[in-house]
Design goal:
The complex is a heterodimer. Chain A is built from twelve helices and seven strands. Chain A has a five-stranded parallel beta sheet with strand order 1-2-3-7-6, with helices on both faces. In chain A, α1 packs across α2 and α5 runs parallel beside α6. Chain B is of the alpha/beta class. Chain B folds into two domains: about 190 residues, 3-Layer(aba) Sandwich (Rossmann fold); about 130 residues, 3-Layer(aba) Sandwich (Rossmann fold), CATH 3.40.50. Chain B is globular and about 65 Å long. The chains are: A alpha/beta, B alpha/beta. Chains A and B meet through α5 and α6 of A and α3, α4 and α5 of B.
Chain lengths: ~325, ~325
Amino acid sequence: MQLSRDQLLQAYRQMKVIREFEERLHIDIQTGEIAGFTHLYCGQEAVAVGVCEHLSTDDKIVSTHRGHGHCLAKGCDVNGMMAEIWGSREGLCKGKGGSMHIADIDKGMLGANGIVGAGAPIAVGAGIAAKIDGKGHVSIAFSGDGACNQGTTFEAMNMAVVTKAACIFVFENNHYSEHTGFEYAVGTNKDIASRAEAFGMKIWRGDGTDFFSVYETMREVLEYVRVPGNGPAAVEFDTERFFGHFEGDPQRYRGPGELDRIRETRDCIKKFRASVTGAGLLTDADIDAVDADVMDAIETAVAKAKAADRPTPEDVLSDVYISY
Amino acid sequence: MARMMYREAVLSTIAEEMERDENVVVLGEDIVGGNGTAGGPEAIGGIWSTSTGLYGKFGADRVIDTPISESAIMGAAAGLALAGKRPVAELMFADFIGVSLDQIWNQLAKFRYMFGGKTKCPAVIRMAWGAGYNAAAQHSQAVHQILTGMPGLKVVMPSTPADVKGLLRTAIRDDDPVIFLEHKALYGVKGEVSDDKDFMIPFGHARLTRAGNDVTIVSTGLLLGFCEAVADKLAAEGIGCDVIDPRTTSPLDEEAILDSVEVTGRLVVVDEATPRCGFAGDICAMVAEKAFASLKAPPLSVTPPHTPVPFARELETAYLPSIPKIEAAVRKVLSYR
């Protein structure tokens, strides 16, 4: 199904926001001004956006340690996110969560998560809630190929099937579980979707470096899961991680020329531009205008984050019910 | 008032709250018991009889019979809570926190703080704990000393049917995650219970079960009854004991304990958790820090030894604090002049 010009521009903008948000963090982190551990989503933008462009705020997502892309795609405020990562009091979580714990419940974003594999059971709970409410809403568990080896993910898949939760397991296979290869760590068939199938779910597969592949695949998946009573489904997207596991990762596990090659041939943003301009759906000028706008937005977000109020020592004791 | 067992107080409170608020759902393994068998749903019901009849009354959507997947049960409770429901999840034995702790400790407990206060997480995690059934090392443990140390959790330990009623209702209506610890040796104990369907006991309010001016005894659960027996025996000798049941270990009614010690000057804490980094030591330290000038004797604790819970009757009896051991500790603090 053909997307409208506005839909195409929106999808491109969302991917570009994630890309530039992460590229900018990659630079700013090297100055030492940003604290903590950060895991960048660059390279996987087509997955987050291709999934979330189908969702409303009533649909819930649960994310991972590599969560910035999912948060932005689900509608979290760019300024609030940047401020959070800079540890500001004006951040989405008042500087108490940081990169790995960004959440915006009102947007249906139930949290990035610092524990690999912890998200899937939470998404099942949200999927059971959606099933009980019977309004056709769904929950999405984003997991990587690393999380697919956690027992919690297996428990969650089985429980989703047993309870007929309106839950979709989206596996982003970026070929690296932290620093270890998918070929080594995933023992069965070198494939994740077939595991989900073994739990009794309908499965799909798509190209996670191609927005249109993700978007069309998710249209089918959602059409299925939104039907009350159908229960869960799973989808595996093959994708690429352009940076290391965390910022500062020396990435000695990469092959010669690997990063240049995937940036050249597997970049979802380059592919999107080539596809839409080739088909005459958008012009280079259209896309250049979005690019300029996004660069401004990121610049603004960084400036605001740097200028934002810092938390005070008193803030340590708020937002928790008991302080001894 | 109605007379009922501890386990009946659990069940009736859950049923009343499910009746009152359609967002209240229950989940856990075997809480329906019999699904997928020739006997059919509710052939068994939950093993503690704390969910009997709920499935028939409220249906499969709200009485969620899960596989044996404790991480997924705790995680689903977290997701249900974030999505606007009020889950009451059952962990069949408290010992099973070992396989599900991440979802309790890193997820449920931390959401509100990590997310900058922008979410509620109204989940109740019920679990059966404690020794006394000869269930050995993996089905008899105390876990409150572990969970009380985790910021973000409220920890409730009812010792009577009346407290079950008032505290469980408070837990279900609370907007934060609550650990509700049911002592398995108390399930059959009977008591008078309020039949007011809004009867609630606020967290952080201890109950004085015996009053006296000579010694303060703090205890909960099965051992509370042992302490009361000691207090009653000593009362006949003219020795008065305050027996305080904190009822919730987090929040803790420090004031009730400190007020009592200021009068008695003597403290014995009796607890079922192991001695190191435990609840008894925590109370003794709190009193030493905050009421040192009132003390006439060193605070003493009576706990099991630093061992796993043993199986054989003789061994489990030797492991648990007993009435003679508690009495000896009370007499020891009285021996200081």
